[in-house]
Amino acid sequence: MHDVTTAVTANRKPIPILTYHQIAPKPPKGTPFRSLCVDPKDFAHQMEFLRLLGYQGLSMTALMPYLRGEKEGKVVGITFDDGYQNNLVHALPVLQRLGFSSTCYVVSQLLGKTNDWDMKVGIPQVPLMSVDELRHWLASGQEVGGHTRHHVNLTQINAEECFTEVDGCKLELEALFDQRIVHFCYPYGDYGDTQAAIVKKSGFLTATTTRRGRIYVNADWWQLRRVSVARRTSRVGLLIKMLTNYEDQKK
Questions:
Q1: What angle do CA 2, 4, 12 make, to 5 degrees?
Q2: Which of 23, 132, 175, 239 gets the highest tally of CB atoms within 10 A of its CB?
Q3: SS3 for 135?
Q4: By the 8 A CB rule, do 56 and 15 touch?
Q5: Three-state secondary structure string covering 149-206
Q6: Fold classified for 17-249
Q7: How do the domains of the chain map onto residue ranges?
Q8: 189-194: which pairs have CB atoms within 8 A and are 24 or more residues apart?
Q9: Pick from 90, 81, 132, 93: which is nearest to 111 by CA?
Q10: Which uninterrupted H or E stretch holds 146?
């Protein structure tokens, strides 16, 4: 990977980056944000469907040559937000079997703990991957990215605190895993020009958002859109999101 990249992407065709959170059975009705749980069987069917259609699922690092316009092919980025243990249990075997790679954005001060930032909205607490589990994730051909130190909304803290959350996350993960961590994801999808500049200053080469859409030429590397995959997303629905402008029209 190049240490320096241009400010914008150079891919000739739109490239989708998929967003997943938990890969787990659906929570009980009434559970807040239950749509963010994709059933393990559905996830497997989606990945197998992509493979059947000739797509290669890639981590952010593996996707970069395509986003830079250096390579062309049927590729799709695969990302997981937050670092849930169920990603390791349910998603990793599928990815390995199909030869896919992915990037999991983790919260450096909550490894091995739970999604405590969700308590206030009533989302059930579930385990996050521990350091050893993330080492296994990495050894299995997957990638780790940064998601701040404490999963904070970066737009609700000052610039100094923002830098500590972003840069500190990068340094802590690099120390734990003895490798460069160069991809970032904004918690809650909230960011502005100030936050994007801090992420860039911290040495991250990309940053993904929750803004929906595929990646077109001249996209800002630190404001990359993604394609949301929810509990009820069917295989046909996923294909529509990837191949048409359906997601591009969403906010």
A1: 75
A2: 23
A3: helix
A4: no
A5: CCCCCHHHCCHHHHHHHHHHHHHHHHHHHCCCCCEEECHHHCCCHHHHHHHHHCCCCE
A6: TIM Barrel (3.20.20)
A7: 17-249
A8: 190/153, 190/154, 190/155, 190/156, 191/154, 191/155, 191/223, 192/155, 194/159, 194/162
A9: 132
A10: strand 143-146
Q: Greatest CA separation found in the chain?
A: 47
Query: What are the pLDDT digits (tens) for 199-211?
Result: 999 999 999 999 9
CB burial readout 35-44, b (16+ within 10 A) else e: bbbbebebbb
Residue 63 CA to residue 78 CA, distance in Å, equals 9
Strand partners, 77: 17, 58
> Residue length, the chain?
251
How is residue 142 annotated by DSSP?
-
pLDDT digits (tens, 9 = 90+) for 121-171: 999 999 999 999 999 999 999 999 999 999 999 999 999 999 999 999 999
Helices (H) and strands (E) in the chain, counts: 8, 10
Q: Say which amino acid occupies 164.
A: T
Structural tokens at position 174: 């690099």
Q: Which of 29, 18, 149 is nearest to 87 (CA)?
A: 18
Write out the two tokens for 120: 């206030």
